[in-house]
Every structure is written in structure tokens, then in C-alpha cells.
Give the backbone structure.
Amino acid sequence: MNRAAVIGWGLFFNVAHQIRAVLTLHQAGACGAASPNRRSALEYAITLRWCVDQGDRMGDIYNRKLRGDQIQLAKALKADGTKDRYKDAYEVMVQTVKTVNETIAADPNEKLVKIDNLVKGYGLTKEWSFYTVESRFTHPTPTGVQMFFKDDGEDFHVSQAPLHEEMVACQLYCLWILHMAMLAFNEVLTGKPWTTELEQVAKEYGFGTTLPQWQGPGDLHAQ
């Protein structure tokens, strides 16, 4: 047991949980609503790949991220005048920031908590394309809005359901992301127990069998 393995466990089962949500929506005929889940599953899988390379150092990086989040929350409570109402929570935030400041040094790899920096560092062109498309349906965009109306030149059609329901093949997409996550998590498990099964799935569906390698500047393991 080490911090990287524990973080990896949480990352992996976030992937599995998001995939379960996608498939549940798929079965309900609501694939269009699953864009945020598909995007989150992909993001967690990519971060899991980073966790395998970064090792225990990722624990400090994540605690530094928590520090930043707590600072923003504390500022928000002060700004809207509710700091005293949530005094206990505010004190926890202050203490968390103080503890991290005193015990954990800044790390140049903190920038990798942002998914776009990870994608670039690993050269994940295909994954970035999927992520970008899913983002257009996750956030309010003209693309998302236009899923509910169509102008065919003669008439203007509106719909209460997306005009194109399954934008990607949900089941194959989920299998691909899950395979990607399992390929990474397998690296931190004793004896790499999933290796044979992952190779069989990769052969059947045309998936890769090797992890993407870091192409960015610097050494992920350097202290």
C-alpha cells in the first residue's frame, strides 16, 4: 500500500462509476445526457495514467490542489458574509491551508492537475478530440442547443429530445475508456493480474496494449 495506489484506486473506481452512469442512461435511451459522464470517465482515466508515472509524489500535488480549493472556498464565504455562519467549516479551511503551507513544498508538476496539460504531455491527440467534442455538449454551446432543432430549408423543426441521440457508440466508447483505465491501474497491482485479459480484449476490439508515454518536459519522478 502506498499513496499512489490509494489515489489510483479512487481514480479507477470513478471511471467505473461514470461508465455505469453512461450505460444506465444508454439503456434509458438518454445517451445525449451522458456527455458529462463520458467526459469525466475519460478525464479520470487519463489522470490515472499520470498517477502511475507520478507515484507517491502525486499525494503532495493533490494536497496542494486541495489547499487552492480551500482558499477559494474561504474567500467565497468571506465575500458573501457567511463566514461566521459556517465558522467550523471556515476554520477547517484555514487550518488545511496552514498545514499544507507548512508541510508541503510547491511542486512544478502541480500544473498537471489540469487535464489539458496532461493530454499535451502524453500526446493524447485522439483522447483530446473526444474530450473537446464532449465538452461542447457538457457546457451550453450552439452545438448543444442545435441538438433540439433543425432547419431543412423548407421547415423549421423543433424537438423535445435530441435529434441525434447516440452521438458516439456508448458501449464501445465505455469499453475503450475502461480498458484504458484498467491498463494503467494494472501497473500498480501486485503481479499485474489483468494482463492476459486486457491483451485479449485489445486484440478483439483493436485497442492498444501499451500505456502512452510521457512526452512533456521534465521527469515526472524527479524530486
Remarks:
- Residues 3-27 form the longest helix (25 residues).
- The chain has nine helices and two strands.
- The chain has a mean pLDDT of 91.
